[in-house]
From TrEMBL:
Residues 11-303 form the Carbohydrate kinase PfkB domain. Belongs to the carbohydrate kinase PfkB family. The keyword Phosphoprotein does not apply. The keyword Kinase applies. This is Carbohydrate kinase PfkB domain-containing protein. Keywords: ATP-binding, Kinase, Nucleotide-binding, Transferase. GO terms for molecular function: ATP binding; kinase activity. PANTHER family: HEXOKINASE FAMILY MEMBER, PSEUDOURIDINE KINASE-RELATED.
Length: 314
């Protein structure tokens, strides 16, 4: 069974990996294990914003898995642990350069045998490793396709491209286009799109994704802010000024704020969709503020609803 039937509410269900980042400080040659993973971070971000959220993920009964379990339990996020045939937890090697940036390598394990989501799900979100690491990626794609057939539920994806997992650019691009065809909203960074499509114009790449099927594509531009494109609209917002401590988790905080805004528009039998330029600008402004708050502190610590409101007012 891939979806439980029932009435739609305002819950966001996040499907994807929870893993352990091995943070390797290249200057000090020190390795620190930290539980995380983009989908798990997004779920935590939604929870801190006060949004009903469920994380559907997997981990094994091994030392990294115990770290993941304890971390997720401490966050208060509702978690569904899917049965997994791989027998091991996922690990990421994050090499820190001393300037707030990281490069990654991965020891992947993503083989959920069954994916179910709560019956009050209004927005289904996925992305990152979960949509390219097999055999789980195929199960996630099936879930997205089945869910998109329901007009009252929105399907959203964050590509969060990790070439170390699938170095074949053509295969990775094809996987992202298949996913885009099964979604309503796709988010990617300008770096994601430059690697996938081989050129530096994020608008051209965003419109290539848009042609695959979603109604909205959002692109983060780092220090330049963010942009959004629909069939007839393009808007940009600048980044918020902040003192950057590190960028870990900034994209996930942005995504949590985006999903929160989309879930607010659910109900009444229609997919959530900020359609006008003013609506898109308001949504993106809130998202870049969430990312800026996260950049101002160490690690993937997204803002609470109160912190985000204060930052926007400041």
């Amino acid at each position: 069974m891939e979806r439980e039937e029932g009435t739609v509410g305002n819950r966001v269900t996040v499907v994807g990996e929870a893993l352990v980042d091995l943070l390797w400080e290249t200057a000090g040659h020190r390795v620190t294990p930290v539980p995380g993973g983009s989908p798990a971070n997004v779920a935590v971000g939604l929870h801190r914003l006060g949004r009903p959220v469920t994380l559907v993920t997997t981990w094994a009964d091994d030392p990294p898995g115990e770290l993941v379990r304890a971390h997720l339990e401490s966050t208060g996020v509702d978690v569904r642990r899917a049965p997994d045939s791989s027998g091991r937890s996922m690990l990421a090697l994050a090499y820190l350069d001393g300037h707030g940036s990281a490069s990654y390598d991965f020891l992947t394990a993503w083989a959920p045998e069954e994916l179910t989501v709560p019956d009050d799900t209004a927005v289904l979100h996925t992305g990152s490793l979960a949509v390219v690491v097999e055999p789980g990626a195929s199960a996630v794609l099936r879930l997205c396709r089945r869910t998109r057939d329901r007009p009252e539920v929105a399907v959203v994806a964050d590509l969060n491209v990790r070439p170390a997992v699938l170095p074949d650019r053509d295969a990775y691009r094809d996987a992202c286009l298949r996913l885009a065809a099964a979604t309503d909203v796709v988010k990617a960074s300008d770096e994601d799109l430059a690697w996938l499509f081989g050129h530096a114009d994020p608008v051209v790449a965003a419109r290539t994704l848009l042609a695959a099927g979603p109604r909205l594509v959002v692109v983060t531009l780092g220090a330049a802010g963010a942009l959004a494109v629909t069939e007839g609209t393009e808007v940009r917002v600048p980044a918020r000024r902040t003192t950057v401590v590190d960028t870990v988790g900034a994209g996930d905080a942005f995504q949590a704020a985006l999903l929160d805004a989309l879930a607010d528009r659910c109900g009444g039998g229609g997919r959530p969709f900020p359609a006008t330029p003013d609506e898109l600008t308001a949504v993106l402004s809130r998202c870049v503020t969430a990312a800026s708050v996260t950049c101002s502190r160490v690690g993937a610590v997204p803002p609470t609803a109160e912190e985000l409101a204060a930052a926007r007012a400041g």
